[in-house]
Amino acid sequence: MQLRTEVSTYLSQIPTSTALSTYQSHQSTTLAFQSWLINQQHNPPQLTAKIVAEYATYQLERGYEPKTITGQACTLANLLAVIHKSDPSHEKARIAHHIPDDADMATQVKMQLAGTLLQEKSPNGVSEEDVEAFLNYLQRSEYGTRTHVYAALLYYTGSNPAPLQELNCNDISIESKTVTLNLPETHLPVSTGIHTTRTASIPANVAESISTYLEHERDTSSEQQNKPLFTTPHGRASSSTLRRSVKRASSDLSLWPREPDRPARTSEQGSDSETVILPSDIQWAGISKTLNEQ
Questions:
Q1: Is 294 exposed, middle or buried (0-12, 13-18, 19+ CB in 10 A)?
Q2: How far is CA 183 from CA 136, 157, 158, 171, in A?
Q3: All domains of the chain, ordered by start, with CATH?
Q4: Quick one: which of 128, 114, 214 has its CA closest to 172?
Q5: What is the DSSP letter of 266?
C-alpha cells in the first residue's frame, strides 16, 4: 500500500528531538486513518484532501468531538503537505472545503481548519470580485511594477506576505513559470526541517510581468549577495513597505461606495467611502478562488 510507505517515511523523518507525545499523536492518527481506509476498501493511488475530508465526515457521524477531528485533520494535512510538497495551511483549507456543511459540528470543524477562507468575504470585508478588479487595475495601470508583481504573486500562490517579502531573484523561474517559497514555521514538517519550501506554478502573464519588472522596474539594491526580488534603493523592501504600496494603489481605485452592511473602516484601512485592499485580502481571495474551482 503506497500510503503505508508514505506514512512510514514521514514518521521516520520526525526528529528524535520532537516531543514523544507529538510523535505518538502523529503515529496513532495516521495508523487509525490507514485502518479506516482498509476497512472502506479504499486504496487510492494518491492521498488527497478530499479523502481526508471523507474520514473527518465519518468521524463526525460516529460522534467524535470537533476538537479531536480538527486535531487529527491537521496532522493529516501535514502528511498531505509533505507528500504533495504543498503548504499545510492550504491542505487544511482543502480538507475543510470538502467536508459537507450539514450540521453544527461540521461547521465547527470547517471553521477550526480554515477560518475565514470559507467565508464569502475576507475579514476586511473584501470580496473575490473586489480583488480581481484591483488586479485588473494593476494590470492596466501599473503593469510590471513592484506592487503589481507582489499583488499577483500573493493571489496566484496564496502565500502569506512574509515568504514573498523574503524572495530572491533566483527563487523565480521565468522559463518554467514557477516560484519557490519558504513555508511558515508554524507547522511540524516545517519547524522540524522535513518540508520547508514549496514550488508554486504561476500563469504565463504573471511570469511576463515579473520579467518586465526585473528588466525595467526593479530598484538596484545595495544588497547584492542575495539579490532580493522586491527592493528599494536601500535594499530589500520591508513587509510594511510592500503593504503600504498595495494599500496606496487600492486607494487610487475606488471600487465601491460603502455598502450598508460593510463594516466601518479602521484608520489603517481608510475612509468608509473607499476600498482599501491589504495583502491579506489578496491572499484570501487567491486561496478562495482555488477552493471554489475544485
A1: exposed
A2: 28, 12, 12, 13
A3: 2-118 (1.10.150), 128-292 (1.10.443.10)
A4: 214
A5: P
